[in-house]
Amino acid sequence: MSAVSLIARDELRLMRRNRVAVTAVVLLVILTLVAVVTSWTHQQGIAAARAQHQAHADHAFEAQPDRHPHRVVHYGHFIFRPLGPLAAFDPGVDAFTGNSMFLEGHRQNTANFGDVRQSSPLIRFGQLTPAFVLQAVAPLLLIFLGYGAVARETERGTLRPLMLQGASARAIVLGKLLALGSVALLIAVPAMIGFALIAGQAGAYAGPMATIVLAYAAYLALWVGIVTLVSMLVRRRRDALLALLAVWAVTVVLLPRVAPEIANRAYPLANRLQTDVAIARDLRRLGDSHNPDDPHFAEFKKATLARYGVTRVEDLPVNYKGLLALEGEALTSRLFDHYAARDFAAQAAQNALVGAIGLVSPAIALRQTSMAAAGTDFEGHRRFLEQAEAYRYDLIQRLNRLQAEAVTYADDTAEDAGADKRKRITADHWRKLPEFGFRAAGPDALVRASLPGLAVLSGWLVVIGAALVLATRRLGARR
Amino acid sequence: MTLWRHETRLLLRSRLALAALILMALLSAAAVAAGMAEVARQHAAIDAVAAAQAEDIGAVADYVDRTKDAGSAAYYSFHPTWDSPAPLAFAAIGMRDVAPYILRVRALGLEAQIYDGDTFNPELALPGRFDFSFVLVFLAPLFAIALFHDLKSGEREAGRARMLDAMPGGRRLWFRRAMVRFALLLGALIVPFLVGAILSGVGVGAMLLIVIVAALYLLFWIGLAALVARLGHGSTANAATLAGLWLMLVLVIPTFANVAINRAVPVGQGSEIALAQRERVHAAWEIPREETMRRFYASHPQWADSPPLPQAFHYKWYFAFHQLGDESVADRVRAYRQGLERRAAIANSLGWVLPSVGVQALLTRLARTDLAAQLAYQDRIRAFHRDLREFYYGYMFRDRPFAKADFAHAPRFGAPLTP
Known about the structure:
The complex is a heterodimer.
Chain A (H helix, E strand, L loop, with lengths): L2 H15 L1 H44 L6 H7 L1 E4 L19 E4 L4 E5 L17 H17 L1 H9 L2 H6 L4 H31 L6 H28 L3 H30 L5 H15 L8 H14 L11 H38 L4 H13 L3 H29 L2 H5 L5 H5 L4 H5 L10 H35 L2
Antiparallel strand pairs in A: 1-2, 2-3
Helix pairs in contact in A: 1-7, 2-4, 2-7, 3-14, 4-7, 4-8, 4-9, 5-8, 5-9, 7-8, 8-9, 8-13, 8-18, 9-12, 10-12, 12-14, 13-18
Chain B lengths: L1 H12 L1 H33 L1 H16 L5 H7 L2 E4 L19 E4 L16 H4 L6 H17 L4 H5 L3 H6 L3 H31 L3 H27 L4 H30 L5 H14 L5 H11 L15 H14 L1 H21 L4 H12 L4 H26 L23
Antiparallel strand pairs in B: 1-2
Helix pairs in contact in B: 1-9, 2-6, 2-9, 4-17, 6-9, 6-10, 6-11, 6-16, 9-10, 10-11, 10-16, 12-14, 13-14, 15-16
């Protein structure tokens, strides 16, 4: 048996004899299992509920009676953001964004009813998910089990006899790494069981899942390396423990909270009131359909009449009010897109800044990688918002087109007793309109989005690995 | 007194202790500064409302003035509401980063408006804010652990414990030592807070209360360290045990409790309210208009003497069915709200046994940034919305023209509450 595995076995035997250590590992395994089960059932429950709500909303939309198309523009449509299977592992921002949206003409609404405003206030302490356990709790356990790995030998003076017996410094360090690494593997197993539950579902792609496994493996390996390194550099066990706890507290607890604060300052977001007022202002400048003397709409009217070769809107073969609605919606929608792009850019810049701070906090890098691969990061929500807006625009313009083509101008402007009935078109039109279907990001896009964080983690691994090599040399020189 | 000074000097000679105290003070100061900057940003956003609103409503007034139609005025006019941060909000931002503190409403159906959010970046909200409550609840215990885990075991390991115990007044020595560490730690934590609180105009009572709460919270952790120390293990084992307890009490149990509470108190999704309200509102287009008016007048007799509906469209009918739509979901709204309150109440009562949760709940309550404060803001919006309806109905149902000057008479959102 090689010296490396002998030392590793010895280290593991010591851990097994330590009742506190065994209890801690067992507790963590149980905690992970609980996290796996609760977040899996939670995700299943949410996915089912949203699918049900969506079906209900679709049914309500299609069950509308004969109506004037513009009534349907205001009746609008509710859509719900579906939750992908990997959210059972890392729900990311799901609880922090609204997950339902009301789509209507003239207006762009916010996504509402996020869990963060509906659940108990304890949600701000964190969410019990496999991702949380592996990101925050597992490193702490590795610290408890490993801070003494080398420091203990240094403090008690057993390092020198060990080396005199022929164990090289390299073998000692590798043995300790191996022992702690196998513990890391052990505590990662339950979370991977969760993966087995997820893997069977539609939309659970192999690529992103492999990326997640890789990222967490790198992260835990990194902690194994950091713990061993500090244990080598520090001569007393207590100092090793305190130093490691400080590293953990700063990188896992403190920086993830400080980084957003910095990002918020660096790239402030405009609030909704200011955006709405700005959109209204731009709209008045572009073309105000409420203003009879508006140059844009006067021009539009002239062009429309010329196109059809008539002199009065009453003589048009189509309903002029429908054409106006089409033009008005096109104008507002362009502004919505413009301002949404501005907000998205600011948010992306904020997240990029947090990512840059992730260079010094592997926990941030891992969190971003994990959410990106699971499709539960801001980009995932943005996809939903953009698709929702595209769908809204398409739906509203189809309805406006129906108004232009299926309702006559004479009926549309009439106010006599029977006018209401003549303005309506038959209900089967609503059933012909397309339903909203969220297109989740494909596996390639998810993997690509998780690469920057993965690169940071790899960089850290290289740095810690090099430091370990150097420290091992110094340890060998102590002989 | 000299003994106290001596103990202080002794403690500050330890590199670890000095570094811990300085770091505590720096973190506390940074958190207070970050909280104050956030509150200043929110104040600035609220201050900027008036100018934006004046511009917006001016354009509506120009448009409506052509027809002098009160219904159009009501339909197109958005009215701002806001929830000014309380003086103490800087210490605990609470829900103010995910719930809107500015919301514009129209006199139309409120249930379709009141749940709207503001623009925020969910990835930034996810980890939680870096404010004083975070430093107190999450970080201060770690510093207490760093300073207290070896209070006695350190001397034992140095071989001085027996001698110190044998000296006259030995017990007082430990008390003195503990008190010095406690006082310095509390000072490092609380002085930046007090500076921030004075600058923000927090009342003396609230300040004192928070000092007491912070002191008690630190004492809880110090007591825990003393209990662990009695097990008689070395400094290292003490530190590991205490860090494990911290993990359980501050991270694991609260997250676990959140899952349990959300399970135990199911709350119907708020989106169901919005869906139901929409159905009721739009159903009005399918029934005779007089039917809607009859129902509306039955519950709002003060408008029943309004002239009958004309042949053409009239906004009073439109607003009547919007209000009926709101009223039809009142039961659901109440149930939804009670569910949220019940969840918060259970979480708060957990605070009696879990100090981390208790301190957080108390801070957000004092800072008016908790769920109760959010709901109180919603109540103020509802009251304001009632005033808006009354105001516009006075024109619509009496067929009074709505001229440019009338815009100035519209209700304005009241002065924000100050504790």
